[in-house]
Design a protein that fits this description.
- With about 325 residues, the protein is α/β, with parallel strands linked by helices.
- It contains 14 helices and 13 strands.
- Strand 7, helix 7 and strand 8 form a beta-alpha-beta unit.
- Helix 2 crosses helix 12, helix 2 packs across helix 13 and helix 11 runs antiparallel to helix 14.
């Protein structure tokens, strides 16, 4: 009888130890997290890397809501989502403040650093003297980029709600370009596909883009296109930022992309908070993956495979994120 009691006690102790170990490995067990994302395949890669890490910590990741960046920020403010993986620190600052700012939200870590935006033209136009956005105040130079015959330069621009449209609209007025430049907005992939086709046909092109994104793997800065400078730094609402990159003023902040989460979620989930703090992905890895999407590997299964491949190639760093997150939950 005594031996039986001892055995039962040992078994109970082993079970408790196992339960404790499981809880330590899976601090998110029983918690469902609600991400919000933009509806663009090119942003799903880095988001799903974080989703996978959250799942490895025991969290259940709900199907993400797909909205534009401005609405994503508001979704956090209203409590309809817990976190957003594509907050540009400078570009989206207005959205951040409009959604409650530091009182309800927190920017966590730096998921991607060195993100760029800017205006570009084809190499032949650049070599012919169009090297600054301000040059387009000259009607003759602006006409070089007239795609529809109205005499105005056609700028392949930014989708409303992304944030970049505010900068472009501000600068067109600031630099006196309203009479010579038309900001074409709509579905970006359609607009840029037309731009790429026209450049391939030897036509002059003027467009906005950003990195990380696959476009710069097709229209390659320094090869077949060049970034334009701007006359001086001027951002909406009197904003200030470093807009210089490699000696050229691009007009947009040299930015970092962070996870944005609600204070309430971070306080309740220290493991997730630490994960967001330490997770970091090389921006070139995202550009490489985005090029795969552009080349046809664009299904959800393809993106999941890209995530698998990235995790295996970066296993030590990825496991380090999980270890730090688990330690934070103890």
């Amino acid at each position: 009888m005594i031996k039986a009691k001892i055995a039962a006690a040992l078994l109970a102790g082993t079970m408790l130890a196992g339960t404790a170990a499981q809880a330590a490995d899976m601090p998110g067990e029983g918690v469902t997290v609600r991400p919000v994302v933009q509806a663009y395949a090119e942003e799903y890669f880095q988001a799903r890397i974080l989703f996978r890490a959250l799942e490895d910590l025991g969290y259940t990741v709900a199907e993400p809501e797909e909205v534009v960046a401005q609405t994503a920020h508001l979704a956090l403010r209203t409590g309809d989502a817990d976190f957003f993986t594509a907050h540009w620190n400078s570009l989206h600052n207005t959205f951040f403040e409009e959604s409650g700012g530091d009182e309800v939200l927190e920017r966590v870590g730096t998921l991607l650093s060195g993100a760029l935006q800017g205006y570009l033209v084809d190499k032949s136009a650049y070599d012919a003297g169009v090297q600054n956005l301000g040059d387009l105040s000259d009607p003759a130079k602006a006409a070089m980029f007239d795609a529809d015959g109205d005499g105005s330069a056609d700028l392949a621009g930014c989708v409303p709600g992304w944030g970049c449209e505010r900068v472009i609209e501000h600068q067109l007025t600031e630099f006196g370009l309203r009479d010579t430049v038309t900001h074409n907005q709509g579905e970006y992939n359609a607009i840029i596909a037309d731009t790429i086709a026209r450049e391939a046909n030897g036509e002059n092109v003027l467009y906005y883009t950003w990195t990380p994104y696959w476009v710069s793997g097709v229209l390659v800065p320094g090869e077949n296109v060049e970034f334009l400078a701007v006359p001086y730094t001027s951002l909406p609402d009197g904003g200030t930022a470093n807009t210089e990159f490699e000696g050229k003023n691009l007009g947009f902040a040299v930015d970092s992309i962070q996870v944005l989460a609600t204070d309430e979620f971070l306080e309740a989930n220290p493991a997730a908070a630490k994960l967001f703090e330490v997770a970091s992905i090389n921006i070139n890895d995202v550009s490489i993956q985005n090029k795969k999407i552009a080349d046809g590997e664009d299904t959800s299964a393809d993106i999941d495979r890209h995530v698998d491949e990235w995790i295996e190639a970066n296993r030590a760093a990825y496991d380090g994120w999980l270890e730090a997150a688990r330690a934070a939950a103890e």
